[in-house]
């Protein structure tokens, strides 16, 4: 009987370790002069790292090759690789917290878990017989051409690069793609084209749909995008001259930079935000053609995310779209941020160090080593609230059941700091009440700041990560009574709101928090929506029976629904998935605000349409939070 391609794995706990063997090569040979010609005449520049016994001379023979596409200038990867081992020592000097909540010290401690290795060039893999290639994408770093992020030509570039790599004498024909953030999305796009020889994907903090999740979240732009585009365009003006001169690329590089000296995409982002009716201010076919084709990915794929990542919406959506068996697809979600990947990894009770985990994944799928990693997970999550690591075959927790809590006007006494203190109750209100949303400047001291700074502001203390009370001063809060027993939340949520707008537009920002006995309001997850974009994408929304659990909106110009001043209407706000333990004595809170800077920015074209807004508590149209939950005793953590 033939051996199945994906044999049934043996289940493993979250803190399992995998034998990656000893280092076979004591040195790394770095070649910064690699150039890759493309079919349209553009040339991409790359760094090639190969196993070596001495740095000056690469080991002979061919190796599996791990490819990383980056827009951030590969010189940054090169510098990070030099600092990786010193960074690990620094990270160990600042021990992590107990992880009841993510702290600033956990961000520094990230360096000890292998994060720099997988961002830069994973020396752990090179020492064990892999080559790595870091490629500046078209129009960035030292590569020629013009940058058009994730555009169709860039998609083609990925395929051409991988085909070129397989023809090189240092490649044994086996390929993997990896990356962090942009590089992870690029890896998934490349894999969706099913290139020959691609055996594995390791995607770290990727997104299913970057424009929906980050560029136009809830239908409004993020100020992060402008800063990001400016940074990419600045980095493209810092070439790596040695290889460019040697390979006669300097002339084409200068020509292309002079043709496009300014940040063209930055100008386009400005127009999207400022010009009323701009075609790209909504989701459309142009944005859709830049996305990965998950259903076509055939290579075993690892998805690595975080609850407070900028792409926290889509970890499980990406996993579910992969047409691969359990074990050949994995998703791991930590309680952290965009740049805190692997914080605490490698320590007792935690997954392996990230560089070793990646090496084990590639050993399995590129070298055929039966190390058992296909028995990991396939769903591995760290529960917020100190709930520890859990592994399962499905998400949400299969024991969780649909629950509904209604928004009620009665004050709870738990949120005197808020604009309005109201309740979350098991029963709908009996009388109609209007609760206007407070006006005023949003506080920068919030979890939203931590998310948009990729975790950096957690260094400033709890107010910038795990205590949102200052931000709730401009919100209407709805809070439960304290829980009698521990409760596990698992999965996405939906907030049905009956609302009223004074103008022809209104924006709604929703934050779900775990309120501790001392009053601290720790953010668990969030959502947002522009009122005129409330039309549902019924096909892609998630229902459990008749209950809407996760509302997906089309966010397209052809589905705009008018807002009539003074006339109440209903809308459903999708709230990103999470898994968290609410301890006995804690409360659940929903905070509704008219803004959430710096997560969202309301441009003048939107602001001039807004003239006050209110939550309408109507017994005939009750507002409610729908979610999945299970008593903690019925859903124990594995570690």
TrEMBL record:
Pfam families: Peptidase_S15, PepX_C
SMART domains found in the cross-reference section: PepX_C
Residue intervals passing through the bilayer: none
Gene Ontology molecular function, alphabetical: hydrolase activity
Domain Xaa-Pro dipeptidyl-peptidase C-terminal: 359-626
Domain of life according to the entry: Bacteria
Renumbered residue ranges of the record's region Disordered: 410-448
Keywords: Hydrolase
Protein name, per record: CocE/NonD family hydrolase
Provenance organism: Nocardia acididurans
Lineage: Bacteria, Bacillati, Actinomycetota, Actinomycetes, Mycobacteriales
